[in-house]
Design a protein that fits this description.
This protein has helices at 39-42, 67-81, 93-104, 124-137, 140-150, 153-158, 160-171, 175-187, 214-223, 239-242, 244-257, 305-317, 319-328, 334-348, 356-370, 373-385, 390-404, 406-424; strands at 11-14, 21-25, 47-51, 86-91, 109-115, 201-206, 227-232, 287-289. It has 428 residues and is of the alpha/beta class. An eight-stranded mixed β-sheet has the order 1-3-2-4-5-6-7-8, sandwiched between helices.
Length: 428
Amino acid sequence: MSETPPNTLQYRFDGPEDAPVLILGPSLGTTWHMWDRQVPELAEQWRVFRFDLPGHGGAPAHPAGSVAELTARLLATLDALGVQRFGYAGCALGGAIGIELALRHPARVASLALVAASPRFGTADEFRQRGVVVRTNGLDPIARTAPDRWFTGGFAAAQPAITEWAVQMVRTTDPGCYIAACEALAAFDVRPELGRVGVPTLVLVGSDDQVTGPAEARTLVAGIPDARLAVVPGASHLVPVEQPAAVTDLLVHHFSTAWQQPFDTGQTVLPSAPAVPVPAAPQPAPVAEIAPAAVPAPPAGPPDRYETGLKIRREVLGDAHVDRALAQADEFSGDFQEFITRYAWGEIWDRPGLDRRTRSCITLTALVAGGHLEELAFHTRAALRNGLTPVEIKEVLLQAAVYCGVPAANSAFRVAQQVIREETTPAE
């Protein structure tokens, strides 16, 4: 166990102190206990290192808003312990951290396993709306629906204690840290970079995973040069919990056969003899090799203001809105779309003097004053995604009523009320 400064992560070790280190990374909304059933066997051969995401499992609530930041905190934790080289297995968000490690810090990773992972998790809009729901309603709606996302129906019905454990695990997570993790997943997209993952990789997925299923797993295998696919029958998203024996066997086989030398943990001088080989476990599903994807050429030079503006515009307004606006542009309106993307979003919204919450407050007020109700609707949606709560939006509109006029504010309240109801109602 550990005491945790803001730039590190809460962790625990299991297994022999002189064994090579194997890291197990958790999924969003879970704790290191999601790997409990794998640890006894893994710890016979490796020094198993588990960590909690910020605000999860009682860890200090220091939000991290990107996968890169979570990765940096993990490396800071390992550096403080003297761990330089390790094997890594991560589930979902934990898998994203594993990909980030392999791409940005390849010398640290000996071998990689990606469980229920994806090079891009759904859409940015989905995760940002989930953040809006949590900010407005707390984590209870997400917690109550977690078993539906994580387990097959048969498992959830047959294992009520595990199902309730899953609900409580989400419910006790810090909401701010959960929202920040949603932002991290919203921004994560490494599809063009998969060809640069240079370590042996096992891609493991449940056959019934409706969150990051076999299609996403095959995208990883197609893009990573040295990757194998294992599909576990009868399992959904949290496959290490639902099919623990199959996952354990696959991890033992992978890390016993694909770990690159040297076994340098940075903690101790290890014997020169290789680790005792473990017989290959029967595979619960076909394992296949896919040809590597071509390595993309790096971008030439820094992005211009249009690319910066397009990125910010998508983050604030959402992909769906921006895609519609750009799709409707033609020879007549295309120059205007480029102008607002480059100037409004690439210049003004990117200035460091105000944060996005403040800019949303100003924008809402200006739109009320001008009576621009259509623009007010999608900027209300943007304000929620930028971190304003419905109560704060109400206060902005009340302030606008004084200085912009009651009739204008009356119309604004009607529009904003409808948007807020749509955005903050949890999905069934």
